[in-house]
Each structure stands twice: as C-alpha cells, then as structure tokens.
Design a protein that fits this description.
With 536 residues, the chain is an alpha+beta fold. It folds into three domains: 153 residues, D-Maltodextrin-Binding Protein, domain 2; 120 residues, Dipeptide-binding Protein, Domain 1 (Dipeptide-binding Protein, domain 1), CATH 3.90.76; 215 residues, Roll (Dipeptide-binding Protein, domain 3), CATH 3.10.105.10. Helices cover 29% and strands 19% of the residues. The chain has a six-stranded mixed beta sheet. A four-stranded mixed beta sheet has the order 1-10-9-8, with helices on one face. Helix 7 packs antiparallel against helix 10 and helix 14 runs antiparallel to helix 15.
C-alpha cells in the first residue's frame, strides 16, 4: 500500500474509531455531568447571522444557538429537529410539505412555528441581506429573481398554510433537496420580533436563539459567552450551563492555553502534531475537506491560465504535506474527494495540474515570463498562525526555485481574511471547501457557475455552467453524477478558481474531563451538538 493510500485509509479508519468511542463514552447516563462551565477554542467569526454567513467557524457557532428543520448525521442521515417528520413530496417532485412540532418557542418566549421558517428562507433570498449561501436555494421559485433585484418577496414560493405546516415549491425535481432543508440558510427567523426580512440580525445579548445555547456576549478579539437555553424545546437538553468560546487565531497559542488548563478543547495546527500525536487527549478526525490555492480570476496576473498552471505545477504536494503539515493530510489534485458520491476517480487530474517542474516552467514561459523574467509580482493572503506562516514560506521557496518569481505573503487575522475573500480583495489565498451534505453536487453547485453567490473567485465557463445546470434538474444519480464529473474536470483542469492541494482532517486536543464530544463528517471548526457535551 502506498504512503498516500495508507494515510487515506488511516484517516478514514481513525474517524470511524473516534466516532464509535465518542458515542460509547456518552452511554445512557443522561444525568451524569449535568451543569458546569467549559472554555473552547475558536477563531473570530465574521457574523452570527445564519442567513448571511459562509465560513465554518461562523456555522459552528450558529449551530450552537440555532436549530433548523433537520440535523444531518454521519452518512447523510436526516434527523428531525423542529420538523416533526421527514417532508412529504408531491408526485411531480415539486412541492415539499414539512410538518412543524407544536409548542416550540424561541428563548425569549416568542412562538416558533412554520411562519418563522418562511421568514428565514425569505431572509436568505433577500438582496439586502445578501446571504452567501443563497445559491443553495436557487431551486425555490422566485428566490433567484428576488435575490437579483428582479423579483418581489411575494414571488418566493415558500408559505405556511397553517402555523404548523411549511410548504416549499421548487422549480424542478431535485434529488438532494431534502438534505438542503437541514442547512443553516433554512434556519428560522423570528417573524414577530424582526421588523422585516432585511432587518439587521440583532447582536448579543439580543441575538435570536432557537438552539441549546444562547449567546449573551461577544467581545471582539477575546471571547463569546453562551449560556444554556432553558426554553429549548427539543431533546436532548444541554447538559452544560455555560460555554465560553475563547478567540485565538494562532493554533500554537491555543495549545499553550490548553496545556495551561485555560481551555478544555482546541483545534490543533499541524505544526504542533509531532509533540502530541501519542497522547490520549489527542483526537484526529477525517473529513471530506479540500484545501488549495484560490485564484481571483479578475486579477490581471492570475486571470492567465498559464500562470495558474505554473503555480499549481510548481507545488510538490507530497513534500508540502511532509514539511509543512507533518504528514497530517492527504495530498491531492482532486477537488471532490474520491470517496464522495458522484466524484471522479482518485488522481484524475494529476497529469494536468500536478507537480511537474518542467511543465511549470513551460507554462510560465507560455504566459510570457520565461524564468520569471518580467513577472509583475504576486501576493497571497494567509492567516496569522504558525502553520500558515510555514506554509507561506514553503510556497515562496517553491515558486522562487522553480519559477523564478517572488511571492509576497500578507498575514491577516481570520476575520479580515474572510472579509477580503468575500469582497474579492485578493490575488490568491489558501482556502477550500468541506461538504454540507455528502454528494458531488455540494462541491460544485454555487461555487463554479457564472455569477453564483459563493463564487468569489469569479469562475466563468459556459461549459461548466451547462454541465451543472443539467445536473441540477437530473433526478437519476448515474447521469447526474456524470454531469457533475464533467463539471469538476472542466473546473479543475482549467483551474477555474481553485488548485486543489490536499484533503484535510481536523485535529483536536480534548480534556479528559470533557465527555460527549462526537466527531461528525461535516466541516465544522469544532464538533457539532454541544448539547451532548458534559463534564465527567
């Protein structure tokens, strides 16, 4: 077995083992460990608005204080949350009817019913709110037109025939729409306390709360405080009384805080893995996440495909994984992980965009910069973290030695980096994607079509658009996946916004005093379902 295959197998096996151990640790002792306070590591979020946000740290935090219609469990299984059961779908596949549990309230006592889910979906479609994930709801009638300023709120085909029934009409049958109903852009919004769908999402301590914990304080650069929601109507109830999220951008600093007993759970940077790998409180988690170079295609320099090819081919991904990440990840040139339903085969694009010194030099020559001569310069945005700084230095060395060009590394805090990315204020940066539900569709739709709301790289290719459009309306998996595979091939070989580098897992340090932490297969900064956490 090759080293690459060993690591792919190990990461997947480690996920299965840690998930089983975490579930077993919970047991049936629901009363054990009730109460208490913990402190958990986070980076700075951009927003607490579920109908606006798009970064994993924001989503992790929002899921502490919100719940939607369903939860997605490992394997893509849907578990009803505020919905009382799975949706009923009309014979033509266009009308979804979702029953809502009765007797539910927001933390402030306001009734939580089907009208709040109508309001939440309308907020995501609202052009003034400008939700980054609006594209996921593109199949809901009128949502695109309203978001684009060409339609009206009344045209969005979501309604509440009565207080406990949500009805959504979509434009064409969609195989994955049930999974979409579990995502945060479908979370409820309090229709009675918010003045309108484009009203500002209230800041703490008045932030709407429908989840097991409510945020009471956000001190920028320092911490967020969450307290148990005593009005939470779903099961299980939160066991802890309070969770403090301590904002630490640098993961090595977070490890120091953990070792000092100041934090109970942290995300690890790979630079620190060698010193903790053999410890019982180190928990690795395999995840379907792809990280790579993201190109802003309206930039004059990186708009040239030959420049993008030169950069991609100049990166020795195996060496990168060893030197920068202590062999913690899986080097790749695939965008969609090969294990995902509908993905292309492993290494399908290696020959085109993979490490190739001579091919990299030739592409730079074809771009008009032989040996780097006359190259106007390039800047990459990196987070203020030791691993990222090491990564930046590695890329500088690769580009200089192979291409003869200088790379400027601009170090930013997490929030500023997110803002720069979302506003298109970059040439290249390190970023990526982790699935929201297990299907190749979620890796392509909204990210690569021309003008899509989360296509911040400004990828635009009519052939990609056509393949994705065909896949969206195809209800049979085999032809749908074939179209998605074609879209991925066009996007990856054309480096249309991304050059995949590695599949990432998350690495945690979890105090032996903290129980009930179950890794999931979703891309969250910290594991989901904090209502399950307890102190031993």
């Amino acid at each position: 077995m090759s080293l690459l295959k060993q690591w792919r197998y190990l990461l997947l096996t480690l996920f299965a083992v840690t998930a089983l151990v975490a579930v077993a640790a919970c047991g049936d002792d629901d009363d054990d460990g009730a109460g208490g306070e913990i402190t958990v590591h986070t980076t700075e979020p951009e927003s607490l608005d579920p109908h606006f946000s798009d970064f994993s740290v924001d989503i992790t935090i929002m899921q502490m204080m919100n719940r939607g219609l369903y939860d997605i469990l490992p394997g893509g299984v849907l578990r009803p949350a505020y919905a009382s059961e799975l949706p009923t779908v009309s014979d033509n596949g266009l009308i979804y009817t979702i029953p809502i549990k009765s007797g539910m309230t927001w933390a402030d006592g306001e009734t939580l019913d089907a009208n709040d889910f109508v309001f939440g979906i309308q907020r995501t479609c609202d052009p003034n709110n400008a939700g980054h994930y609006q594209y996921v709801l593109t199949n809901i009638g009128g949502c695109d037109d309203y978001y684009g300023g060409e339609g009206a709120l009344a045209d969005v085909t979501v309604s509440a025939p009565d207080n406990l029934t949500l009805e959504i009409v979509i434009g064409a049958p969609q195989a994955t729409f049930k999974s979409i109903l579990a995502l945060w852009m479908v979370y409820p919004a309090p229709d009675e306390s918010l003045a309108s769908v484009d009203a500002e999402w209230p800041a703490p301590p008045n932030t709407p709360c429908s989840g097991p914990f409510c945020v009471t304080e956000w001190e920028a650069g320092d911490h967020l405080t969450f307290v148990k929601n005593e009005s939470y109507g779903l099961e299980p109830k939160a066991k802890l009384d309070q969770i403090t999220l301590r904002i630490i951008d640098d993961f090595s600093t977070a490890l120091q805080a953990y070792e000092a007993g100041e934090v109970d759970m942290i995300r690890l940077g790979t630079v620190d893995l060698p010193q903790v790998r053999d410890r019982d409180d180190y928990v690795p988690q395999a995840l379907p996440i792809t990280i790579g170079i993201e190109y802003f295609l309206e930039d004059e320099v990186v708009s040239d495909l030959n420049v993008r090819l030169a950069l991609s081919r100049a990166i020795d991904r195996d060496l990168m994984n060893d030197v920068v990440f202590s062999s913690a990840h899986i080097p790749t040139t695939n965008w969609v992980p090969a294990e995902e339903p509908g993905a292309n085969a492993l290494d399908a694009f290696e020959a085109v965009i993979g490490f190739d010194e001579e091919g990299a030099k030739q592409a730079m020559t074809d771009a008009g910069y032989p040996g780097g001569e006359g190259f106007p310069g390039l800047t990459i945005l990196m987070r203020d973290d030791e691993t990222e700084k090491t990564f930046g230095a590695f890329l500088q060395a690769q580009f200089l030695s192979i291409l003869g060009i200088d790379l400027t590394v601009e170090i930013l805090d997490s929030q500023t980096r997110q803002e720069r990315f979302n506003s298109g204020d970059f040439q290249i940066l390190i970023g990526g994607w982790g699935h929201d539900y297990p299907d190749a569709e979620n890796w392509l739709v909204g990210l690569f079509e021309t003008g899509a709301s989360i296509n911040k790289q400004q990828c635009s290719d009519p052939a990609i658009d056509a393949a994705i459009a065909g896949a969206i309306v195809e209800t049979e998996d085999a032809p749908r996946w074939a179209l998605l595979q074609e879209a991925e091939k066009l996007a990856v070989e054309g480096l249309c916004g991304y050059a995949p580098l590695y599949h990432r897992g998350n690495h945690y340090m979890i105090s032996p005093d903290l129980g009930g932490v179950s890794p999931t297969l979703e891309d969250h900064f910290m594991p989901q379902f904090p209502e399950d956490w307890f102190l031993n």
